[in-house]
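Final report, results section. Input specification for complex C-07:
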Amino acid sequence: MTTEFKNKSKKPVKRLDHVTIRFAGDSGDGMQFTGTQFTTSAAMLGNDVFTFPNYPSEIRAPQGSLYGVSGFQVQIGAHNVDTPGDKLDLLVAMNPAALKKNLKDLKKGGMIIVDSDAFTKANLLKAKYETNPLEDGSLKDYIVVQVPMTSLTREALKDIPIDSKSKTRSKNMFALGMVYWLYGKDPKYTIEFLRKKFKNKPEIVEANIKALKTGWNYAETLELIPVSYIIDEAPHHAEEYKIITGNTATAWGFLAAAEKAGLQLYLGSYPITPATDILQELSKYRQLDVIAFQAEDEIAGISSAIGASFTGKLAITTTSGPGLALKSEAIGLAVMLEIPLVIVDVQRGGPSTGLPTKTEQADLMQALFGRNGESPVIVVAAKSPADAFKMAFEASKLTLEHMTPVILLTDGYIGNGSEPWPVQRIKDLPEINPPLVKEKIEGWHPYDRDPETLARKWVVPGVPGMEHVIGGLEKDKSTGAISYEPENHEYMVRIRQAKVDKVADFIPPLETEFRDEGDLLVVGWGGTYGSLRSAVNELNEKGYRVGLAHFNYINPLPHGVKDVFSKFDKIVVAELNLGQFANYLRMKHPEFRYEQYNKIQGLPFTTEELVNAFEKLLK
Amino acid sequence: MTTEFKNKSKKPVKRLDHVTIRFAGDSGDGMQFTGTQFTTSAAMLGNDVFTFPNYPSEIRAPQGSLYGVSGFQVQIGAHNVDTPGDKLDLLVAMNPAALKKNLKDLKKGGMIIVDSDAFTKANLLKAKYETNPLEDGSLKDYIVVQVPMTSLTREALKDIPIDSKSKTRSKNMFALGMVYWLYGKDPKYTIEFLRKKFKNKPEIVEANIKALKTGWNYAETLELIPVSYIIDEAPHHAEEYKIITGNTATAWGFLAAAEKAGLQLYLGSYPITPATDILQELSKYRQLDVIAFQAEDEIAGISSAIGASFTGKLAITTTSGPGLALKSEAIGLAVMLEIPLVIVDVQRGGPSTGLPTKTEQADLMQALFGRNGESPVIVVAAKSPADAFKMAFEASKLTLEHMTPVILLTDGYIGNGSEPWPVQRIKDLPEINPPLVKEKIEGWHPYDRDPETLARKWVVPGVPGMEHVIGGLEKDKSTGAISYEPENHEYMVRIRQAKVDKVADFIPPLETEFRDEGDLLVVGWGGTYGSLRSAVNELNEKGYRVGLAHFNYINPLPHGVKDVFSKFDKIVVAELNLGQFANYLRMKHPEFRYEQYNKIQGLPFTTEELVNAFEKLLK
Amino acid sequence: MTTQIKYTYKDFQSDQEVRWCPGCDDYVILRSVQKALPQMGIPKEKFVFVSGIGCSSRFPYYMDNYGIHGIHGRAAAIATGVKLANPDLTVFVMTGDGDSLAIGGNHFIHAVRRNIDMNIILFNNEIYGLTKGQFSPTSRIGQKTKTSPYGNTQPPFNVGELTIGADGRFFARVPGNDSKMQTEIYVEAQKFKGTSVVEVMQNCVIFNDGAYRFWTDKKVRDEHTVRVEHGKPMIFGKDRDKGLILDGLKLKAVKIGENGITEDDILVHDAHNPDPTLHLMLVRLKNPLVTGIIRSVREETLEEREAKLTEEVKAKSKIRSFDDLVS
Amino acid sequence: MTTQIKYTYKDFQSDQEVRWCPGCDDYVILRSVQKALPQMGIPKEKFVFVSGIGCSSRFPYYMDNYGIHGIHGRAAAIATGVKLANPDLTVFVMTGDGDSLAIGGNHFIHAVRRNIDMNIILFNNEIYGLTKGQFSPTSRIGQKTKTSPYGNTQPPFNVGELTIGADGRFFARVPGNDSKMQTEIYVEAQKFKGTSVVEVMQNCVIFNDGAYRFWTDKKVRDEHTVRVEHGKPMIFGKDRDKGLILDGLKLKAVKIGENGITEDDILVHDAHNPDPTLHLMLVRLKNPLVTGIIRSVREETLEEREAKLTEEVKAKSKIRSFDDLVS
Ligand SMILES: Cc1ncc(C[n+]2csc(CCOP(=O)(O)OP(=O)(O)O)c2C)c(N)n1
Ligand SMILES: Cc1ncc(C[n+]2csc(CCOP(=O)(O)OP(=O)(O)O)c2C)c(N)n1
Ligand code: SF4
Ligand code: SF4
Ligand SMILES: [Mg+2]
Ligand SMILES: [Mg+2]
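Structure output:
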């Protein structure tokens, strides 16, 4: 730690394995920024981290209102951390509304840091408090640290020549400084960051750093904070990880896949929460020859991607549930054309517009079956923010090598959440070998297939002598000409299915975590991995014999399911929907009996509720 | 029989139980008309009938070409007839292409009547015959009746003052006359029909009737036809039946339902094969206040229907597979709004554009699950052309009384096929009681529910004091205001599901046909009913112990499934897809083991292939 | 058509908290509509507000009327069903530039073509607000947004040109910050029988602040805009000393009193001319920008045509019920 | 751009049997395109034909080129991806009035707005052919079709107005039975850099026979149509004795020699004028109907603008690979 920020107090220091913190305030209070800074510092210093932001659905709600509260939660740990944490150890609440909305998530005995300046009558009213919670005793079960942050910040910055609004706005840095002190974290990364970011505004840099330091010092001396904490750091991580959200990781996975495959990346998309970030991220990379086309709607987005794929690009389209519904007809076309295409669905709460800013896993059935006719596609899912990189890469590899569309499912929770991603270079990544044809092949027919993958070749405009037309009508099994022949149709329906089924030979078999036989197997898929892992971990620590089988690959299912499942007495499928994966398993493996644990609240699982539910099954 | 058409020949008359005939010729040869005439006469005279047309997918293919052949198949029977028949007893082929395309479906020993005038070199070439099949002995296994129909017709009409083209065109009536004689059918209905239809063109009437009579007489005297047949007639049917296609029956079912419910019928649709007929049929009924709105696309079609439903109409939308895909997002909205809406999917071969003029049952999964989020709808299916009336009525009743969208599945086979429909009057039909509110109710909230059906009330614009807004965001369980509350969301997701599940209490329980216990239970759904029934009938006649359980109601499944299924040793699910209903049963009733019999050729089952397949399972 | 009840704008306020960003022009639109409604003489329960998805599409929640908050882009299609099914209702479509011109472009042009009597209020902020700032089909070339970090490359639609190109019979344009003009024009739009499109130059303070400053800023707006009114000369300027004249096939702004130009030389606005030539010129003008009702041509509406045809068919047909049909 | 290979129309014929109805204008279009292609000097493998669904959309199968027979309405959107992904290709969109203006209306107007260099050949038979005869968005009021048994009630789009309303830079109209004019105009459309829309007045012999008879019938076509050519006077008539003049804001057909009118009074066509006022008048004219290239205004295409921006960004950025990005 830089000497300046050495803890000089005599207060005791307590070592913790992990801690969960939430910064909450008005949308304008900079809570997302504050949280991100804390997270980055902790991670840079060698903690594991996992974050989850919780924005209001309004763009900019009136100051102080309940529905305008913005929150950022992070769990940091000395060891592996799989979730943003269930219950809070610390809640930073910049106003009454933030306190009101978030208090229920605080642990009994947890700490609250509030900006007491914000607890005005007007603000209390907006937060629908009848009495002041700082005074009425309602917070007696918590350690309440009241700090007049606004006035302290303004006082500290009084000599800096910036406007009064900017001074007030720096109070988030004051709060951050306090939290840094509390957890013994060096603020150097934030200071560096501020210097870079506001290069051209030295007063702003000064103000922010001053506020930060003031907060730090204030915490050190404040009696109300009787102790500070330390979460062991493993500094070797620092260089090889970046903290990225699942959406960024998804975007980067495609960038890497395109480069690895030697192809240009084409995205055709239409904004929709919570998938828009991927489009926004990829819009930045013209220098990498990415074409990020914002279309007039979802159908145009995917249709243009189909056109791009026809010309030999790695073509993708990104959306969320309602957009996937709109794309279903075009996905069917891609199935019929047998061309590469990745469709990303960042799932949100449904049905219909539903809960657009919340998370859910209820698009699984739609991804598997939401098309007319027998229209199989490969379906894969990412299990965490960082895993989204891997699965975007993997989805690209599968679509390019197997010549059939792939749907990649993520969700709002992992799309917006972040965790450290182990930086990878192109050379570390698996090869991608699409069956792209660049020169004339004698005797070739558009629907001839590779015997191993059943993929057809990818012949793109510009290759002389290979001119051909593909389309959505059923086609002859070899020439690709329109065919209404009954047997040919049956053959084609079955071979398209077989092509997808065969993918199972090219993906890793199912593995279990914790143990490969026992009393209960917890089965999950996609973004619930972290929560399930925590829960199963806890159960094993409690002495139960519980295994975890988490699926990244959904259609086809990986090999080994039967072996894995048959070694447990009970199987429970836990998911954020009414049981879609459980039902899918009933179709594919009717020989087992499946218990279900489901939650449909727009929220991820908490470890606690999972542990309780599974314990019941174990009794 | 009118005396004029009394069989005066000495040829023996053979009594048959049923017979299958196909009329085939160029698209311009009027085969659909000819077939329909024969069918109508047979039915009017008291036979049971079942037809299936087979159009070319081209609008008007070049004369004589193979792909321009149009066919119309009918089975007529003294008793119950469930299908258009597998193999033909008689093939009428107006040219070489018609013979070539249809011969494979003729029974060994069956009869072919050909227009020998059409077997010119040019036509043989177009039909890709190298030698003339009438001469090269390739038809030796059949009774071939060569008739120079064109010249005989022209000769017969030589004195009638119509143009030469019209004379030639009358040859289909010549052929029809022959077939009437052959099966001892009185042509009086056709003669009446011609008189009415061409009221203002007496020469055309004369020509057609003359041609018909000439054909009749010709058959009577022709030695090549050594015998005529009789299929017993039960004339009491004549008055109470109309032969209608499944698509017309669907349209009429909605007309009846709207009138019964006291509502105006609103259809918002976009043309698509093979569903267009329903839109076309309903476009005719302005006098019944039907609003048939042809929208700019499928999405506008359903969206406008949602708007109409909001105002208190019986709102429907009709489409086929690719259109259903496009409508999926809007169906989700209707689920969320909890308003009445029927979506008809006349299934065709898929995926994508697939085989647009062919039949298939591969949209089941899409109907059940093709939407984002947990988005349950009621799904029902019609099992035959006439049953489409009942199920359209039933779908309307369910959507109106349970305030949730219903998907009605039919298919190209039953949509285009026809059979006698027992004429029903409004008074014979069940009551429909939608929870429509016409006056202010104090204390009402938009999402209050009826405890029995869980349906909310249908309050429509125009009722003072009941103004409210509904939308696609999750809503508070009572007030309907936007709600992001986690528990409320879970409650709403589950109650929408429960509302659909509860429909099981309002529909008939599952029943079996033939026997209610045995060695094999054949399970089917939708348009395959006729074929399955024929096959199970045959198996029982052969002494096997086979039952049939056919599903009209798919989501929810009717009560009684467990009871029915558990009384058979084996269960086989037969469907025109890769096993979608079988998989659905695995989800809903994992306690049973399901065998599958599947066909994906754009064609209905034949009785023969079913009998063979099921026999194998019985061994 | 007139009713006894006298409403005030408060009768149209719902109990829902309005949740737009402070300073958003959407507040102005809301209040202007609420003020216009009492002037229409229509019972409250006969209004239906239909919207899609977007900031603007939240509108129906804030009105105490019947309404549907639909799905993105489909408001015009839903409204079409509402109006065809019950022509007795007064239908408003509240929509954004993304909602009606991106994903909903098709329903928009078809609604306009069909000329159903409904009122499309198009909140054109030249941005996607609700999804936090991506370019829209009306965003300008070069505009930096979250999905065009280096500047937008797609040329924008001109809403008026597109509307009239789709055979639009009523088109008006109003500044988002001018409540008075809005209220007047909403009343006119409702009176007009047929599809009326009102483009509101709506400022999004958060993601595209100042897009219309050149025309709506109080300091300059009188110089940079001309409000046209049927039958009146196209005069503008703080001192009402400027006007539009026709110079061949081009509109030209001139100063009255200069170069011998008098008020009589100034074009008189004919909103009712079925020929859209001049309306299109007005719609395209950028400086001064034209506000007010640019085009308003009465033609038979779809529902009128439908009703007439249905009457004709009924008069000729003997079928009165399902039983007649099957008998 | 020019290539050594000399093609004839036969080089563009595929081995698929052509399956339109005998007598359909689609045959004329096919042959005209096949004759136009050899004149373009582009290697065969660089052409891509994209279509949706409809009789017209069968087109790509009959060409020996790369092609996609897409889904209904999405041809323009698919083609957008083809061209943006590989600007080196020459892209044709073959589409019907239903395909491009009903279900595909949105993609159509957006393609036009964006000005991507592609050629949209719109087979306007004012009917849905493939689905056997329902009215389309260009069908006329009163037209009896299978879904309008008592006559169509929906007013039609004017393709040219809609195109120009969506900021169209190239619009041409050609008779479906005039192969020579078609070939010429397809060549011009391809040469034009930007989105070109060619409306073909295509006769559907089966479901809407004679829709264009008034204008295309050999006996009257010279009197009822005027073919405009850039830089030439708008003269028509069998004896080339008629012409168009401007009368205020209206076009008027006059007889040369009568009322003192000479050839010099006749309007000279300026297809390149960015101001669409006159083009719109021409597009709206019904008698004589205007054929030929009505508007052709060169502007930067989307792909040109994209390429320029990408070059700029590259010049400023040090990131050349994924590894640079994550380093
Ligand atoms: C099918 C679908 N696609 C995308 C979205 C995401 N979305 C919601 S509103 C919106 C754009 C809003 O822009 P605009 O219509 O201009 O309204 P504004 O917010 O600017 O008022 C988008 C892209 C959605 N809700 N549904
Ligand atoms: C999603 C979808 N909706 C509807 C159809 C049915 N359909 C096929 S072509 C067509 C209209 C064709 O009309 P047009 O584009 O004018 O082409 P034409 O046949 O007249 O050349 C329709 C409605 C379809 N194939 N797919
Ligand atoms: S984001 Fe823009 S348009 Fe939306 S409410 Fe805020 S200011 Fe208004
Ligand atoms: S139906 Fe009409 S458009 Fe289609 S091929 Fe036949 S004539 Fe041509
Ligand atoms: Mg907007
Ligand atoms: Mg057409």
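The interface with chain B takes residues 17, 19-22, 53, 55, 71-73, 102-103, 105, 128-132, 134-135, 137, 146-150, 154, 206 of chain D (CB under 8 Å). Chain D is about 30% helix and 20% strand. This concludes the modelling results for the funded period.
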